[in-house]
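Protein chain data
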Amino acid sequence: MTPAGGGGSLGAMEPQITPFMELALAEAEAAGRRGEVPVGAVLVAAEAGEVLAAAGNRMEETGDPTAHAEMEVIRAAASRLGALRLAACDLIVTLEPCPMCAAAISLARIRRLTFGAYDPKGGGVDHGPRIFTQPTCHHRPEVVGGVAEAACSGILQAFFRDRR
């Protein structure tokens, strides 16, 4: 098992859908019903197992191109805790974070990133610029990819299929 930056994300864990990933999937489904690209995220206080924030994409709703699910939960948790650094927190998200979100994850010092579907086109963790492998990256979280991958990619595929 090696964290991203040391050989990619840890192996897929498809059979295990945790309650936190279930919540992220519910947020993704809610985002899709609002007409947003269905991505959901949950930020958890790792030791306590307490959900600090949960959200889906809100870009269309807010007119803000940075209102990705990951950014929404990072902002909400930082505000709730009154802290810029979320080192004792884990982020669970249904889609591999884009480069912007990966950089925010690093800046927030999030302990562990768990994501569902891989994103070869827009991802920034295992694809694209691979933010956590860059020498300028100050913090590399532990990364686990492919968790509930079929469920996460299924929501996205259905959303885009219905729009064609």
